[in-house]
Amino acid sequence: MSEIRNLEPKPLWNKFADLNAVPRPSKKEARVIEFMKNFGNSLGLETFEDEIRNVIIRKPATPGMENRKSIVMQGHLDMVHQKNNDTVFDFDTQGIDMYVDGDWVKAKGTTLGADNGLGVATIMAILESKDIAHPAIEALFTVDEETGMTGALNLKGGILQGEILLNLDTEEDDEIDIGCAGGVDVTAKGSYEREYAPLHTSGYKITVKGLNGGHSGMQIHEGLGNANKIMNRLLFETFEEFDLRVSSVDGGSLRNAIPRESVAVVALPQAKVDEFLGDMEKTVSDIKAEFATTEKNLQIVIEKTDTPDKVMSVDAQQKLILALYTAHNGVYRMSADMKDLVETSNNIARVLVKDGEIMIGCLTRSSVESSKFDLANALKAAFSLAGYEVTFTGSYPGWTPNVSSEILKVLVDVYKKQNGDEPKVVACHAGLECGILGTNYPGMDMISFGPTIHGAHSPDERASISSAQKYWKFVLEILQNIPERN
Description:
By secondary structure, this protein is an alpha+beta fold. The protein has 12 helices and 23 strands. Strands 9, 11, 12, 13, 14, 16, 17, 18 and 19 form a 9-stranded antiparallel β-sheet that branches. Strands 1-2-6-3-7-21 form a 6-stranded mixed β-sheet. Helix 6 packs across helix 8 and helix 8 packs antiparallel against helix 9. One of its GO terms (biological process) is proteolysis.
């Protein structure tokens, strides 16, 4: 970690290195919670956790700042766990292995945890500092942001005392976020009849891999490939003509990550194998041509494997493939109110077909609540026609922009002073926790910003070193310019 710890600003990168040594998967945050509580207690600061295990640390204002409005500095403790298929790594026991590549900090074959580790490290560095001027601070470290916003959803009113919230979970350093999308998990489940594979068939494994993946909110408009949709397209174009029979499908992983890989095991009549392989060669060529710009490393591999004992019935297979083809993936509607903002989208994140059971998991996002459920109901209709049971869970609200925000004016003025140009004041298509926190703290003035991070939620995640330096200066001056109490 020495090359990371020697980067500037050292207070930020040292705390990030400390944090990344602690395993912190979503819903398994016990170790990082204890780490954060020990950190707060070691500084002699008031430190406690609430009922859902969010950690709160309070630090009094520095001399001369007592009359400023109190602030909440907020980040989430958990991180998305993704790795390349050839990377041997145990997220439950290992710390992230980082290195420097030019202007970027990266991880070796895994997600980096800069989302939201750099935000958390920023807060830790300020809590530990003895020479940074700031008003009274409540540091709020939420849990389980990445897989359900559980910490924010269960933070009760009355715990926080701050008047302004600084959320440090934005991923472009020239952007100031004043709004975000809400979301809902749409899950379809069903069962199917299994039957013995027909006689005189051969087993084949179809693998879609090499896709970029990425954040299913922030990158949903980039035209990236979704491994589940590509796999289903391959199956759709071959199952009737070549009597292909599906034994299993396993694609995608996390709800908020665009799927990078999918694997299907199928059975093919031996008499049609050559024709099938020839036809697939053209189909694969077409798909690669379509994604030539956005997915240069896309691979579709078809290889012989053991013939499966059991396959889906023809009826069940047809319903699955048609339902997945019908289900919307990607941008559903652009905002009519904010230029270039995705309003509503869906990510078909997970497809698992195995041993008679089917599970399809989607994350539907929108900055308009009615539009969110319009798309969710469209998905429900597609999956219900196939006979699956569809549930909506984990719904969380969006964050309505406040263009008259007092703290927004502070950030815009500081940014212009430091950089000589205007920041982009935007709403994002990611699921920031501000909207949720605002339900129990409706009077709190909220803003979100952060350093530049690319490829979040994928093993290509990387954090810009020069941007971290720019962002650190931004944070320090914001703290000095928090408005006075009325």
